[in-house]
C-alpha cells in the first residue's frame, strides 16, 4: 500500500506488497521472474547444476520465511532477494569446503600400508611448501584455494570477498613466482 492507502501502481511494488502480505501466488510470481537469475548465480559459482538448484530452492525458502524483514523503503524486492541468494551461496560454499576437508581426512586415514617415501617426492613437497610460505598471505590463500581445493576464480572471489581481478592477479603472480623458483631448483639439480 502507498502512504495514502492506495495500492501501488508499479508492478514490482505491487508484487512486493503481495509478497510481504503472505500471498503465496506472489512467491510463485517471484520464482517465475527471478528464479532463473538465482540459478545462474549458482551455476557461475557452484560445481554442479544440482548445487545451483539447491541454492535456488534455499533462497526462495529463506525469502518466504523472512518476508516480514523485507522493507520496501530500503530497496526493491529483486535486490533483497539477490542479497539472500548471495548469503545462501556463501553458506553453500562453506559447506562444500567442509565436506571436502572431511573427505580428505577420511582418505588420509584410509589405507593402512603407507608407501615407502620417495626422496624426490619428499623434496618436491618441501620445495613447494617453502615457496608457498614465501608468498604474501593473500596470494598463498588464493593459490591454495585454486590448486589444493580446486575452486574456480569466481568461487575464490566469493569465498574470500576479494574482487575477481585481484584473485586473478594474486594467482598469476603467485604461480609465476612458484614457477621461477621451481626452474631454479631444477637447474640446480641438473648441475654436476
From TrEMBL:
The keyword Transcription regulation applies. Residues 30-98 form the RNA polymerase sigma-70 region domain. Residues 128-178 form the RNA polymerase sigma factor 70 region 4 type domain. Keywords: Sigma factor, Transcription, Transcription regulation. CDD domains: Sigma70_r4. One of its GO terms (biological process) is DNA-templated transcription initiation. Signal peptide: none annotated. InterPro entries: RNA_pol_sigma-70-like, RNA_pol_sigma-70_dom, RNA_pol_sigma70_r2, RNA_pol_sigma70_r4_t2, RNA_pol_sigma_r2, RNA_pol_sigma_r3/r4-like, WH-like_DNA-bd_sf. Pfam families: Sigma70_r2 (PF04542), Sigma70_r4_2 (PF08281). One of its GO terms (molecular function) is sigma factor activity. Belongs to the sigma-70 factor family. ECF subfamily. PANTHER family: RNA POLYMERASE ECF-TYPE SIGMA FACTO, RNA POLYMERASE SIGMA FACTOR SIGZ. This is Sigma-70 family RNA polymerase sigma factor.
Amino acid at each position: 500500500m502507498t502512504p495514502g492507502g492506495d495500492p501501488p501502481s508499479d508492478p514490482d511494488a505491487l508484487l512486493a506488497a503481495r509478497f510481504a502480505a503472505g500471498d503465496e501466488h506472489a512467491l510463485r510470481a517471484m520464482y517465475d521472474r527471478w528464479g532463473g537469475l538465482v540459478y545462474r548465480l549458482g551455476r557461475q559459482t557452484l560445481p554442479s547444476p544440482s548445487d545451483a538448484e539447491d541454492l535456488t530452492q534455499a533462497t526462495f525458502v529463506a525469502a518466504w520465511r523472512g518476508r516480514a524483514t523485507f522493507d520496501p523503503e530500503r530497496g526493491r524486492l529483486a535486490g533483497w532477494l539477490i542479497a539472500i541468494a548471495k548469503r545462501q551461496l556463501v553458506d553453500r560454499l562453506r559447506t562444500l569446503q567442509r565436506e571436502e576437508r572431511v573427505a580428505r581426512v577420511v582418505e588420509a586415514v584410509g589405507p593402512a600400508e603407507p608407501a615407502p617415501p620417495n626422496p624426490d617426492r619428499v623434496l618436491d613437497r618441501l620445495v613447494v611448501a617453502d615457496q608457498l610460505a614465501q608468498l604474501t598471505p593473500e596470494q598463498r590463500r588464493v593459490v591454495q584455494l585454486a590448486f589444493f581445493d580446486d575452486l574456480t576464480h569466481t568461487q575464490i572471489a566469493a569465498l574470500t570477498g576479494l574482487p575477481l581481478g585481484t584473485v586473478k592477479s594474486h594467482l598469476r603472480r603467485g604461480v609465476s613466482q612458484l614457477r621461477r623458483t621451481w626452474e631454479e631448483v631444477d637447474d640446480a639439480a641438473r648441475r654436476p
